[in-house]
Design a protein that fits this description.
The protein is an alpha/beta fold. Helices cover about 35% and strands about 15% of the residues. The protein has helices spanning about 55-70, 90-100, 115-130, 155-170, 185-200, 220-225, 240-250, 265-270, 275, 295-310, 315-330, 340-345; strands spanning about 40-45, 80-85, 110, 130-135, 150, 175-180, 205-210, 230-235, 255-260, 280-285, 350, 355, 370-375, 380-385. The longest helix is centred in the middle third of the chain and has 16 residues, at about 185-200.
């Protein structure tokens, strides 16, 4: 997720619609110190109570579950889990990061969740030499900062663009593709990259932008119907995607509709209307695999997650668990100081409940995958990897 503010209040689940509960900042605090001794503190930073909390509570819960399961084994060194509610805002994330490092003495940070706050927090963690693993920040530029303590367990926007374009051309068989963005950094960047990638694969493309604050997209709908594309891809967030998809169907468009991770939310179906949303496709670097189609660990994680939180795994909950697992493996190996943990992360090679956890020299996952989801009823189940998924 690139943008600093996203109007997303719900998250997609596998099989049912997720009901999220609000989590207050520091709600998981239980006292204790940072590194060394018989306890270390791992932080989690992101929007936990604001308008975008639906995208951040799932990874927070995933991380919480991983740490609770580890602590339940009665290890020599336990992990304290402390949350920092930035509400996705860089101006709030900065002082929170400073306090986490100086006062709470965290030895690692899961997050920040969004790319904008990651831009602000990164230099603070670099100076303090405290490692971070984001479950969901996807901006391409984050890996170009030269940071030595930064990592993420999700593919960036460039990978998503290529994966989505490959799926549209090869699986959807889209020879004509219309791309619409909300004209914001994340949405426009995504659609521009998909247009370039799809064009390179032989597809004919046209683009347009809509006002994310508007409600009438008839002008764009008319342009799309005149172009008669095989598929429409929207770059932006579910509130706008829902309105656009609704108006497309009501305007007579019969082709495929698709969007990215910013629309992978129950609100997409609510906004478009269940009938209009049927068959809509979503691309995401996140893995939501309650049935264990990709690996057996994913199914067990989904069961444990539902038992703990009373809801299905959702967007980025898997990545939250895997980000916490990276730190847990470091502590299990006897590393309790930030620099030692960071050095361990450079050598880590383990199968997560989602993807393999192995970082390259820039902190990116060595193996980067994009997954495709399709609206069915009021759910958005996994179709598979973008290179293999077939439209049902």
């Amino acid at each position: 997720m690139r943008r600093n503010k996203m109007r997303i209040t719900g998250a997609v689940v596998m099989g049912v619609t997720l009901a999220l509960s609000a989590v207050a900042c520091g709600g998981d605090d239980d006292g204790g110190s940072g590194g060394g001794g018989d306890e270390v503190t791992i932080g989690f930073m992101g929007d936990l109570t604001g308008e975008n909390s639906g995208l951040v509570i799932p990874p927070k819960q995933g991380a919480q579950l991983a740490i609770e399961q580890y602590n339940a084994t009665n290890p020599k060194v336990k992990i304290k889990f402390k949350t920092y509610d930035s509400q996705g805002k860089a101006e709030q994330a900065t002082p929170l990061a400073q306090g986490a490092v100086k006062d709470d003495k965290i030895v690692g940070l899961i997050g920040p969740a969004f790319s904008g706050e990651s831009e602000s927090v990164g230099p603070i963690l670099e100076e303090a030499k405290v490692p971070s693993v984001s479950p969901s920040a996807t901006s391409i530029t984050l890996a170009e900062k030269g940071w030595k303590y930064w990592h993420r367990v999700v593919a960036d926007d460039a990978v998503q663009s290529d994966g989505a374009a490959n799926f549209l051309v090869n699986s959807v068989k889209a020879k004509k593709l219309y791309l619409v963005s909300d004209n914001q950094a994340y949405g426009k960047g995504l659609t521009d990259a998909i247009a370039k990638a799809a064009g390179g694969k032989g597809a004919q493309t046209q683009t347009d932008a809509v006002d994310d604050k508007a409600t009438d997209y008839s002008s764009t709908v008319n342009k799309i119907n005149q172009f008669k594309p095989d598929a429409v891809y929207f770059g932006g967030y579910y509130a706008v995607a829902g309105r656009l998809f609704k108006q497309l169907r009501e305007g007579g468009y019969k082709g495929k509709m698709m969007s990215g991770d910013g629309s992978l939310a129950a609100g997409l179906i609510e906004g478009a209307g269940q009938e209009n949303a049927q068959g809509a496709l979503l691309s995401c670097g996140c893995l939501i695999d309650a049935e264990g189609k990709t690996n057996e660990k994913a199914k067990k994680f989904a069961t444990d997650y539902k038992t703990k939180f009373g809801s299905e795994v959702a967007i980025y909950s898997t990545e939250g668990y895997d980000a916490a697992t990276a730190f847990i493996e470091a502590v299990k190996a006897g590393h309790t100081e930030p620099e030692a943990i960071n050095n361990f992360l450079k050598t880590l090679n383990a199968q997560g409940v989602g993807k393999p956890i192995k970082f390259d020299d820039k902190g990116e996952l060595a193996a980067q995958d994009i997954f495709i989801y399709e609206v069915k009823g009021n759910t958005i189940p996994l179709l598979g990897n973008s290179n293999e998924a077939k439209v049902s």
